[in-house]
Write a structure and sequence with these properties.
Helix content is 62%, strand content 6%. It has helices at residues 3-33, 72-75, 78-99, 110-125, 139-149, 152-161, 166-189, 200-207, 210-220, 226-240, and strands spanning 42-46, 56-59, 64-68. It has a 3-stranded mixed β-sheet, covered by helices on one side.
């Protein structure tokens, strides 16, 4: 067998293994959120030549989950499963909108969706068996997990060095939603770890009191309350407006 054939077979095996893990996790996710009639999804692995780390993206059209092909060692990492749960939560939230005949043409709900998905991601990463459980969280485990997230600050600072475009505005809004989701999770389940992830003051220094407004609105928001989602979008725009390209 030639080297080309060996690589081709290895790629096929890696693709099938990635699909197998994500399909298995999706069934586990249904039990995790106690919703068994979530829509079918299609797992589409692709070869990522830039990184071996897990990259996942949900496309609402057709409920497709794009994920780079992963080797077995990365698939066995707990953080990989938690990233999958984050994307499955996007499937769940879009499903709720569809069930209520809501078409979010302006994508106002995306900020809440990222906030919600981050909370579910952290529940998975820190050992919750389901969304109703209140477990004893290992502080050392949470420190390791949260420490990884500080690396995102470098990218965030890079984005804010230049006036924000339509594309970079979305990335900043997504980062804020991720971060507020993590803060809310820690406030609810692991207050001792807040000092490790002390980013509240950082956000308020960058965006002022609108961060407090966003936290309150996101905490009270319901998945299908489009009026609340539009208000959240407006407040997010207010927060980042000083950084927008004029």
């Amino acid at each position: 067998m030639s080297d080309v054939d060996i690589r081709k077979n290895a790629d096929i095996e890696q693709k099938e293994t990635t699909q197998k893990y994500f399909n298995l996790w999706y069934e586990e996710y249904k039990d995790f959120v106690n919703v068994n009639d979530l829509p079918d999804i299609k797992i589409e692995p692709f070869i990522n030549t830039e990184s071996e780390r897990c990259y996942v993206e949900h496309r609402a059209d057709g409920n497709v989950i794009y994920v780079n092909q992963l080797n077995i060692y990365i698939l066995r990492e707990k953080s990989t499963k938690s990233i999958a749960f984050h994307e499955f939560t996007h499937v769940y939230d879009h499903y709720l909108l569809q069930q209520n005949n809501i078409v979010d043409k302006e994508n106002h709900a995306f900020i809440y969706h990222e906030y919600h998905a981050t909370i579910i991601e952290m529940m998975c990463a820190l050992g919750f068996k389901n969304i109703t459980e209140i477990p004893e969280i290992n502080i050392n485990t949470s420190k390791v997990y949260l420490g990884m997230e500080h690396k995102n600050l470098e990218l965030f600072e890079t984005l804010l060095k230049e006036p924000l475009t339509i594309t970079s505005w979305v990335e900043v809004a997504r980062f804020i939603a991720y971060t507020l989701g993590r803060i809310e999770f820690l406030r609810t389940y692991c207050r001792d770890a807040l000092e490790v992830f002390d980013i509240q003051n950082y956000l308020q220094e960058k965006f002022g009191g609108t961060i407090i407004k966003l936290q309150s609105l996101l905490y009270l928001a319901k998945p299908c309350d489009m009026q609340a989602h539009q208000i959240i979008t407006n407040v997010m725009c207010e927060a980042v407006y000083p950084y927008i390209e004029k």
